[in-house]
Amino acid sequence: MALQIVKPIEISPEAVLIKVKEFASFAMSEYEEAEELSRFLKGQYNVLADLMEQATKIKQKTAFTAQDKNELENILEVSIEIIESINRAYSEESLTDDAVEVTDEAPELPSKNELAQKFLSVYNKHKARLGLETQADVSALTGLDRRYVSVIESGKMKPQFKTLKKLADAFGIDVSEFVS
User: Fold this and answer.
1) Interatomic CA distance for residues 144 and 127, integer angstroms
2) How many domains does the chain have?
3) Which of 40, 70, 136, 177 has its CA 20 to 30 A from that of 152?
4) Could you tell me the CA-to-CA distances from 112 to 36, 59, 117, 158 in Å, in that order?
């Protein structure tokens, strides 16, 4: 993430100290974001390992049922969504510009954390409105794997658009409510 620098109007020890504190805060947030990405990747790996174990158990069965096929399709769908989320996480990192841009004003944009909080706030409001008490309830209503619902509710992963659409349809709302 690039830091937009707003030059102080007056050069004074106080103004420079404020700017240096701002830069230190930025450096710390970049460090914390890298740690967050690392925790996110570890969590995604753990979910994939669980899915791999489930698929292996199904593979070892002597009879393959329609329920097994549905479970494998769900495992594949969740796995693909996880890989896509990992790719998005990396592409967001690689799209950032390391150059420092100097301007007179910095734009006001919501942070990733604010967007995630907005999504979870809307999600929890409609989950409660519908009387959905557990992740299994949400899973049954939406067709999403319960483990994936858990990952979404933990805030570790922002859902893809198709997942937002499934949630919105199940909750009876427009998908834009999650992101506006």
Assistant:
1) 14
2) 2
3) 70
4) 12, 39, 9, 10
Closest CA to 112 of 100, 101, 102, 120: 120
Do 82 and 137 fall within a single domain?
no
Distance CA(140)–CA(28), nearest Å, equals 41
Pair 16, 96 in one domain = yes
Q: Which domain holds residue 12?
A: 1-103
**Which of 73, 103, 133 delimits the end of a domain?**
103
Domain boundary (103, 132, 151) is at 103
Going by C-beta distance under 8 Å and a sequence separation of 6 or more, which residues neighbour residue 166? 142, 143, 144
For the chain, residues with pLDDT lower than 50 are: 1, 94-102, 104, 106-107, 109
Q: Which residues pair with 4 in a beta bridge?
A: 101
| Alpha helix segments (H runs only) across 60-174 | 66-94, 112-129, 135-142, 146-154, 161-171
| Crossing angle of helices 135-142 and 161-171, rounded to 10° | 100
| Residue 106: per-residue pLDDT | 46
Give the pTM.
0.42
**Are 114 and 162 contained in the same domain?**
yes
31 Cβ contact partners less than 8 Å away, ≥ 6 residues apart: none
